[in-house]
Write a structure and sequence with these properties.
The protein is an alpha/beta fold. The chain has helices at residues 17-26, 40-47, 69-72, 76-81; strands at residues 59-64, 83-91, 104-107. The protein has one domain: Rossmann fold (3-Layer(aba) Sandwich), CATH 3.40.50.720.
Length: 108
């Protein structure tokens, strides 16, 4: 979740999210990326991956990489509704610390 350089902007220059995606793909992980601000055309041209138009699930893991305001409004019940039981929840910015109890939570 998130592909832009920082929260609440459309700028994708220097985004490190592309590195995370590439690393996950090297391990054979099927990755879907969503971002309410990023341009699908710019993402495809700059980083050669597609943005998903919506969050579908169920997923075995979620990575919240950019703390867009839309994501900060979500709660654990929402994440449970789009994941398989036992899913990993990686919160790269730590915005859900103290808000996730039942998911396998990980943060930097």
């Amino acid at each position: 979740m998130g592909a832009t350089f920082k929260e609440n902007v459309s700028d994708i220059r220097n985004s490190k999210v592309a590195d995370v995606i590439a690393e996950l793909k090297e391990f054979g992980v099927k990755v879907e990326v969503v971002d309410p601000y990023a341009s699908p055309e710019e993402i495809k041209e700059e980083y050669d991956f597609e943005l998903s138009p919506s969050i579908e699930g169920p997923y075995h893991g979620i990575v919240v990489a950019v703390n867009h305001k839309e994501y900060m409004e979500l709660d654990e019940n929402y994440f449970q509704s789009i994941t398989h039981k036992g899913a990993v929840f990686a919160d790269l910015k730590g915005i859900f610390r103290e808000r996730i109890d039942s998911l396998n939570y990980w943060s930097l």
